[in-house]
Structures are given as structure tokens and as C-alpha cells.
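Risk register update: the risk of archive-format incompatibility is retired. Evidence:
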Amino acid sequence: MLMRRGYDVTVVDDLSRGYRHNVETQHFHQWRVQQTSELTEIAAGHDAAIHFAAFIAVGESMQVPEVYFENNVNGSLSLATALVRAGVKHLVFSSTAAVYGIPEISPIPESAPIAPVNPYGESKATVERMLHWFDEIHGLRSVCLRYFNACGADPEGGLGEEHDPETHLIPLMLRAVKSGKPFTVFGDDYDTPDGTCIRDYIHVNDLAEAHILAVEALMGGAASDQFNAGTGGGHSVMEMIRAVEDATGRNAPYAIGPRREGDPPALVANADKLRKVLGWSPKHTDVREIVKTAWDFERAERAGGWGL
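Archived output:
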């Protein structure tokens, strides 16, 4: 989306959990984010950085917290240090709703207490606090976008979820639809209307748009800030099953399993600040439409489509 708008984009990724065919720009470097010297050299002359490089699986973070702190915190420290050395003053950081832990109110405002209940959320909260001091001391202004459930695929084709192993709900549901093998619903005894977890699902293109608005705001002189990146609407796992069945016209088989450690019952954004301050407005608000974009990608990707 940045390149479509005329921006010159350089990508750094170690490809440990990603794929080169998803990087459209030719300006690509296969480095770890911990390679501070190399990042410093490549950042020189750029106006801003967008930092996505993190491990994101809550369950995994409860098993190997050391991996999450090393990658998410140390990697962010490396990047922020490189940007300061290179004279880059603008950073957009991929944070998470997991920084709120188990929220006291819903929808969650940005003023809610930061109280993560898993190492993944703790790693992101630590980076947010670190960036505050990098602004105070070094003048590195940042926008932290607290993601809710990013999902869907680019409707124009070719870019969608390709995790190995896959942990995200919608791709797992779609694979169950195709294979007939049930996916697991992690717990049906939460304090929610149907007992399953409620999440705020935001389409990846709407999320990308929020990043561009944040970059442009910083480059226009905006101060550091934090924003919830969600739609303001919540859907339970059972509601998402019905959305998948509506979008695909097929049955979505599932089995009920135990709760997944570290999962809050509900995470729904109050996204008023993102709308008012950055002028953001989501274009994909119907979860059935979001699922349809993921379904189109899943069918094409598994069939070897999109020219990949």
C-alpha cells in the first residue's frame, strides 16, 4: 500500500516466520532485527520506520518466554538504537491489545490499565515504555498501534496469512472447512454470552491504512501517541464459525478443547481515538466479508494460485 502511494520502501526480515515471495519491493535485506549496525546503515536517509518484527503467539509465549523477550524486546531495542544513530525520528510500532490483560471495561479505551497476563503482552508493553524514554531522551517520536485481531487477506490477491504452524482462528476454520477435520475451540466456559472468547476482528488492509496514517502524522509533526487498532465490534468464536459457514457455504467442523493459557475472555477496542485523531475509518466491517477475502486467498494459495 505504501508503494502504491509512491513511497520508497525497504524491507528487513530474517524470514524465520515469513516468506520472500510476500515482499514486493526489491529493496530487501535478510537480516535479524538484532543486527544493529546493519540496521543503522540501511536506515540512514530514510524518513520513518514501521516495526512489525515480533513473535505473536500467546500460547507459545507461555511456554518459552525467554524467546519472546529476546526477540520482541531486544530486537526493538536494537531497531530503536539504530534509528537514533541514523537520525531517523519517526517510528510506528506494532503493539497489541494484549497489553491490557483482562480488561475491567469493554470496549477498551487507551487509558485502560496496562496489565498483561502473558509474556507476549508483557514484551509489547515493555517496548511501549522503552519508546517513551527514547522520545524523551533522543527525540524518536513513535506511534504505538495496539492491534486487536488482524485477519483477512488482500482482496486484490496474493497476500494473506501463511503461518507455520498456523495459530490464527480464521485460517484454521477455513482449513477445517476444506479438509472436514475439526479445528479446536479453546474453551466454551468463559463469562461471555455463548461461553467462547470474544475478539475484535480488523481486516489487514484497514490495519495497513492505520499505519500509513500514523507515519504521515509523525512526519507532519505529530507527537508520540498510542492508538487502539480495532473496529469497536466484538464477535465470539461461535459467531465466527457461523460467519465462516455463511461465507463459504460449507460446514465448519469443530471440537471443544480446554482453555488456552493466557487468553482473556474478551478483547474489544474503543477505536474512537484512531478515528478522530488520525481520521481513520475501516472499510471492511462485516466479518463475513473479511472471511470471504481469507477464503479466496486460502483456496487460491493452496491451489498454487496468485502466480506465487
